[in-house]
Specification:
Number of strands: 0
Helix content: over 70%
Number of helices: 9
Strand content: under 5%
Structural class: mainly alpha
Shape: elongated
Distance between the termini: 76 Å
Order of helices and strands: HHHHHHHHH
Amino acid sequence: MNRSDEQDYREFVVARLESLRRTAYLLGRDWHTADDLVSITIGKLYRHWTRVQSTARSPDAYLHGILTHAWLDERRRPWRREDPTAQPPDRPVTGAAYSAATDRSALSDLLDSLPARQRAVLVRRFYCDLSVEETAAILAISEGTVKSQSARGLETLRSLAVGGYGRQE
């Protein structure tokens, strides 16, 4: 990019920066996310600025297209699906419930309380240390089934362990 193109780019971005940031806020509903989206957008615009100047009918439409795609990409990121809470649901198990869960016989009893498919998935995934794909192939089930059965089985084990299953008084 030559100096003239770079100067044109700077003028274009500076003239639209606040409007772009407000639009990003309306998409993400968070100023930190908006700032991230604007950074991504102006970076991508910079990389394609020569082409935008020469071929784009509307550089503003191109700019907002980049912003929208950046927001959609950000929404797909796994950490965006987290739902922060005041009390995290996964607390370490302590005391009698912890000692009961670590005891082999109590753990065996906990596993016996699970349905067969959940038990098979959990044993292969966590005891045998197999991947989702390997577990699915061995059990002849879909990868989605492996994931859902893992989640359900772990939740059942947590509730039984914390609920005092096998706790000795």
